[in-house]
Design goal:
- It is a single chain.
- The chain is α+β, with helices and mostly antiparallel strands.
- The strands form three sheets. A five-stranded antiparallel sheet has the order 4-3-10-9-8, with helices on both faces. It has a three-stranded antiparallel sheet with strand order 5-7-6. Strands 1-2 form a two-stranded antiparallel ribbon.
- Helix 3 packs across helix 4, helix 3 packs parallel to helix 5 and helix 5 crosses helix 6.
Length: about 450
Amino acid sequence: MKTVRHSTAVFFRFLAILAVIFAGITAIIPQSTKKDDETLFPVWSDVDMENSADIIALYEKGIIIGGIDGKYGVDEPFSACEAAYAVVNLYEDKKGIDISFPHYNPNQSENYIKRAIKYKLWDESMPCGSEPVSREQMAFSISSLAKDGELLNNAEFLPDEEMYKYADEVIMMYNLGITLDKSIALAYEPDKILTRGEAVKLISMYLEPSERLKIKIPDYAVLETTLNEKMSAWQGDWSLYFEDINTGKTISINSHQVYSASLIKLFVAQTVYQKIADGVMAETETIDNELYKMIIYSDNDAWKYLAKSIGGSYSRGMQEVTKVANVAGFIDTGQFYQGSHKNYNFTSVNDCGMYLRRIINGDIVNEEMSGKILSLLKQQQHVQKIPSGVPDGVTVANKTGELDYMQGDAAIVYAPSGTYILVIIGDSLENAYGQIVKFTDLSKTVYDFLN
C-alpha cells in the first residue's frame, strides 16, 4: 500500500514539474490560434488588427522573429542583428540564392552583418549586435533591395539634406512610397530609433507595392506664380508665406516688416507662457481667461492686461515681448520706434509662418505651452479670412489682425492632403475691410491646388 502511495506521489510530482516547464515555455513563446485553414499563427498582446497582417506574414516567411512574454514588441527598438538578418533573407530570396540563415540566432549577429555588407545592404559604420538601428539606416538597407523599383515621382529634398548620411537612399525610398510618413522630414529622421513595428511596415511596403504611400509632389513653382500674379495686381502691399508640412516646401513672397495689428498677440501669448515656464509668472485662472479672450476674440483689453502683467506697464510689457520674440529668432517682430516719439508693433509673414511651424513642432516655449496656444487658435472666432477659403469641416487654427489700412491672417490648415501653413498680410490698403475677400481667394487657391 505504501509503495502504491509513493508511486502515486512521484507521478503527481512529475506532472507538477511538467506543468512548470510548460508554463515557462508558454511565457516566452507567443500563443497560437487557428486561422480558417486550420494553420497556426502566433498571437501577441501588443499586435492589433492594423498591423497584424504584416507582422504575421513576415513572421511566417521567417523574415522577422517572434516576441517574448506574450508580446511582439511593436514599440521596442529594431536591433542591428534583426535588421541584418531580415535584409539578407530578403536579398537571397529575391536573387534566388539558397537561404544562408533559415533560422534566427542572435549569436550569429556578426555573420548576418558580414553577409549584409557583402551584399551591399549594410554600411560598416552602422550598428551591430543588439544596438538599435535608426530610420535612416533601415532606409539605406531596404533601398539597396529596391533599386530596380519604379519611381512614383521625383521628390524635392529638404533644405537640411546635409543632416542625412544616406540622402540618396532616403529620397529613393520616399519616391517609391516606402515611407513611414508623407512628410519626408518625419519619415526617416536619422536620430530616431526604428521600432519593430515600423520595421515591419517598411519591409511590407517593399514587398507589396500596393501598400506603399501614393505621394504626389505638387509643382510649387506653379502655385507660387499663381499667387504672385494675383497679389501683384492688387492695390496695396501684399506679402504671403506658405509651408507644406508634408514636404517641408516653403513659398515666401515679399516678406518684410509690416504693421502687425493683432498678429502681435501670438507673440504676447508666447511671452506669457515663457514667463510661466521660467517661474516668473503664475498661470492663474485670470491669466488663462485673458489669454483665451486675447486669442479667440482678439480682445484688446485682454492684450493690454497681459502686457502689463508681463512688464508692470503696457510699454515695458511690449518691450519684453519684443525681446522674447527676437531671442527666439523672430527678428521682424515686436514694438519698434517709428518717429514722433511713437512705438508701433510690427511683424512679417515669415515670422508668423515660422511661429506656426514651431507651434506644430512643440517648440514655442515647450511642447506643453505650444499645445495650449494651438488649442486657443483652433477655437478662433474670427474666421472670415483664410478659414473661409476652405470647405466646411476642415479644421483651421488661426489668428487675425486688422487696422484701418491693414489686414492679416496666420493659419494652420489641416487639409485632407496634409497640414499646411498660410500667412497673408495686406498693408497700405484702401478700404481694408473690403479686402477680406482677397484672403478667401488666396486661401481657396492654395487649398484647391493641394487637394
